[in-house]
Specification:
The complex is a heterodimer of chains A (488) and B (99). Chain A is an alpha/beta fold. Chain A contains 17 helices and eleven strands. The longest helix of chain B has 19 residues. Chain B is flat, with a radius of gyration of 22 Å. Classes of the chains: A alpha/beta (488), B mainly alpha (99).
Chain lengths: 488, 99
């Protein structure tokens, strides 16, 4: 019983809880047991067992007294980048290893209001800077499909937890692909919404003009349900959008006839042949559902990574200047003076990749280089955004790969930073332009999942979720789970 | 357009000062290589003429929203200072700056 209930989708679990087939406490305990037995995956940094059981009991009482909060009693996991009151929130860094958040982020509080049970906080690359989850202070996460491979990053813990049924669904954040790439590598569905769709308040900042929170789950309909209770304007985040949030579940069922989907020629360069075949099959499935395809061009795609690796470090160097050893986080032992306090607190607790990006950012923003690097990158960003605007004049969305290939081996790209950066080649453009984009399981290569990506126009989350949902009605890639007990 | 930058160990030391990072001699080589990798990638941007292109600062081209200048939060300094390394009488403690 306990094993089968953790294998149910979020949508199914809601129905089961409603029908009284099992309680939130039973479901929560089943997940906690699974988490304990799958500790080798290292998906969680913190497991909040006691709090989870308490809130599951509360959810059961609420349900018994007629409360019908939309996600009542559903056990989920939060990426350890979302502040959760009374729970350690580390962002995968030694800097925040001692930080117990005194408040809830907007995402956490909105989902709490909707009734979820928080099982704990998932592992991630330090401050969300990485594509393999190997840059975590808490050690790498292992891909549940093959423990010798990475789960992707930076939301690798969330993706692995969903794939291994260690939670019903999870939250993630995506600055350059950090929801979509791990979703693709772990065979789950993940959505990065439009910039500003979900509040960033209480979400530890990496690159503020790119960061966006989103749902990671087994299917598009689970993502839709979660997003409905994450999205919306927040007076505490001045960049959150005033565009009305929707009930993303309500639009899932309409068919795809007449939908215009573009295939980007530049995206097809560089994918391996298996990925190309998978995308071709995805296209055929969507055509059979009524979608029409045409080719489009995003000519400045090759400039997305160069522009990103100036903009994101520049913003990170500003955002991470708050870690000074004074107000929260790590403080070095016996500082000689104030400068020594700042420098050693930062240097002793930031990892290599974080230091690297802070340095690049400080350089790109420094006098004499600002125009050549930062301003130039923001101008390139305009060209990339204009490419999309032109494409969306003729198509409703774009289908492409999420990653160049399947999950790579642990350690494989650790000594080759450039190869690691190039992992995000198909995902970064959507962040630069601020567009919503989803990755869904669409096939396998080497017995590892491969994701297909749908990029939509601004605030078209409902449309890409509907497309993915319709695709998932006629395919079963999203239902495949890693073989039980598969170990390295 | 700036000349191509040569990332020397001197440049790295200067930037580390700006970033308030202490670089151990042993880490200098790794950090220099790391900066070089990114700045070499960024060089590709220089081949594009962006004269007159309006830089993007907000992906939705939104401007900062204003609100009335009213107190909306309650004073919770004790709670927020509970996570600080060292405080006294509501103040953060740091090493003495002025003798």
């Amino acid at each position: 019983m306990s094993d089968s209930i953790t294998e149910r989708s979020l949508t199914e679990q809601l129905r089961d809880l409603e029908a009284g087939q099992y309680s939130s406490r039973e479901l929560t305990e089943a997940y906690l047991q699974k988490i304990a037995s799958a500790s080798d995956i290292n998906a969680y940094i913190t497991v909040s067992s006691e709090q989870a059981i308490e809130s599951a009991d509360l959810a059961d009482q609420r349900r018994a007294s007629g409360d019908s909060a939309p996600l009542l009693g559903i056990p989920i996991a939060h990426k350890d980048i979302f502040c959760e009151k009374g729970v350690k929130t580390s962002a995968g860094s030694k800097m925040l290893d001692n930080f117990v958040s005194p408040y809830d982020s907007t995402v956490v509080s909105k989902l709490k209001e909707a009734g979820v049970v928080s099982l704990g906080k998932t592992n991630m690359d330090e401050f969300a800077m990485g594509s393999s989850n190997e840059a975590s202070f808490y050690g790498p996460v292992r891909n549940p499909w093959n423990h010798d491979r990475v789960p992707g990053g930076s939301s690798g813990g969330s993706a692995a937890a969903v794939a291994a049924s260690l939670c019903s669904a999870a939250t993630g954040t995506d600055t350059g692909g950090s929801i979509r790439q791990p979703a693709a590598f772990c065979g789950i569905t993940g959505l990065k919404p439009t910039y500003g769709r979900v509040s960033r308040w209480g979400m530890i900042a990496y690159a503020s003009s790119l960061d966006q929170a989103g749902p990671m789950a087994r299917s598009a309909d689970d993502c839709a349900l979660l997003l409905t209770h994450m999205a919306g304007q927040d007076h505490r985040d001045s960049t959150s959008s005033s565009v009305e949030a929707e009930d993303y579940s309500s639009a899932l069922t309409s068919d795809l006839s007449g939908l215009k989907i573009g295939i980007c020629t530049e995206f097809m360069d560089g994918v391996d042949s298996a990925v190309a075949d998978i995308l071709d099959q995805t296209r055929q499935s969507l055509e059979a559902l009524g979608a029409n395809f045409s080719e489009i061009s995003l000519p400045n795609t090759h400039l997305a990574i160069p522009a990103y690796y100036i903009i994101a470090p520049a913003e990170c160097s500003a955002n991470l200047s708050r870690y000074d050893g004074v107000r929260f986080g790590y403080r070095c032992e016996g500082p000689e003076n104030l400068e020594d306090l700042y420098k050693r607190s930062r240097s002793e607790s930031f990892g290599r990749e974080v230091k690297n990006r802070i340095m690049v950012g400080a350089f790109a923003l420094s006098a004499g280089y600002y125009d050549a690097y930062y301003k130039k990158a923001q101008q390139i960003r305009r060209l990339i955004k204009q490419d999309f605007e032109e494409a969306f004049a003729s198509v409703d969305m774009i289908l492409g790969p999420t990653t160049p290939g399947p999950a790579f081996a642990l350690g494989d790209k650790l000594d080759d930073a450039k190869a690691m950066y190039l992992q995000d080649i198909y995902t970064i453009s959507a962040n630069l332009a601020g567009l919503p984009a989803l990755s869904m399981p669409a096939g396998t290569e080497d017995a590892m999942p491969i994701g297909a990506q749908l990029i939509g126009n601004y605030f078209q989350e409902a449309n890409i979720l509907r497309t993915a949902h319709q695709y998932q009605q006629v395919t079963d890639w999203h239902k495949r789970r890693p073989e039980k007990g598969e170990t390295a | 357009m700036a000349d191509e930058v040569t990332v020397t160990e001197e440049v790295v030391k200067d930037v580390a000062e700006l970033a308030q990072l202490k670089v151990a001699e042993g880490d200098l080589e790794v950090l220099t290589a790391g900066m070089k990798t990114i700045l070499e990638l960024a060089e590709q941007m220089q081949s594009v003429d962006t004269t007159g292109v309006n830089p993007v600062s907000n992906p939705l081209d939104a401007t900062q929203r204003l609100r009335a200048d009213e107190v909306t939060e309650s004073d919770q300094h004790e709670l927020y200072q509970s996570v600080a390394p060292e405080t006294e009488d509501g103040l953060y403690l740091v090493p003495r700056v002025v003798e």
